[in-house]
Automatic annotation (TrEMBL):
Mg(2+) binds at residues 70, 85, 87-88, 212. It is an enzyme of class 3 (hydrolase). Its EC number is 3.1.3.25. This is Inositol-1-monophosphatase. Keywords: Hydrolase, Magnesium, Metal-binding. The lineage of its organism: Bacteria, Bacillati, Actinomycetota, Actinomycetes, Pseudonocardiales. Belongs to the inositol monophosphatase superfamily.
Amino acid sequence: MFDPRPLVDIATAIGREAGALVQRMRASAVVSFDTKSTSTDVVTEADRASEQLVRTRLSELRPGEPVLGEEEGGTVVEGLTWVVDPIDGTVNYLYGIPWYSVSIAAQLDGESVAGAVVEPATGRLWTAARGYGAFLDGSPLHVSATTDLSLSLLGYGFAYRPERRQRQADAWAAMSTRVRDLRRAGAASLDLCSVAAGRLDAYAEHALGRWDWAAGGLIAAEAGAVVRLPGSSPELGEDATFAAAPGIADAMYSALVESGFGKV
Ligand code: LIP
């Protein structure tokens, strides 16, 4: 039987190396950056350097296996593909807010089987192997036991395109009276890890890249969350990512649909 755990070890080792690099670069006075899809969608020199390091190390440790990365692209193929977000939460990184990650996942035929999310600012390590559970620094993770939507804490995010943000804001405003509160932390991989740890009861966002959710989505699922990846929840939108504690998953899904989240 296929055991994905050795792939977690590789993702962890390389993620830690890339994390150390981006932290050294963060310590420099100026972090230079360019913009991508919009003026607010930034890529720093550290993003690029991190992805180059990960690609180099994967070519050494796993020669010939394809890589899909946020900055240099690639494709998911049959068999094993490595999916890399060199810095998830780039805007946080740019502003010096210590809530960003290096996220590395191994996918088999497009399904995540191993993942590591490294927090360079704190050294925390989130991991999961399919069928073997999810862990924070080696301790098992379990989602929250909440069953009351009105007492749930919902994580969310915005797309970069301004014209979509207003529609998203309207949906989040409608949700604000349905839940305890909302949190917008700015790093999808860590939002998904937060659901795994019970620090969020649910998380939803549109327009994520595969690299944003590939590791965090597996960690949340292995911790017991209901996870719906892009393409699996048409009522929330073809590019929606959803994760929730099982006790509120159905109610949260319905509330998001009723709030217009699926039409933003
Ligand atoms: C970010 C995501 C975040 C989302 C941002 C951005 P990046 O990824 O982690 O959840 O709201 O728009 O996509 O660009 O920092 O890797």
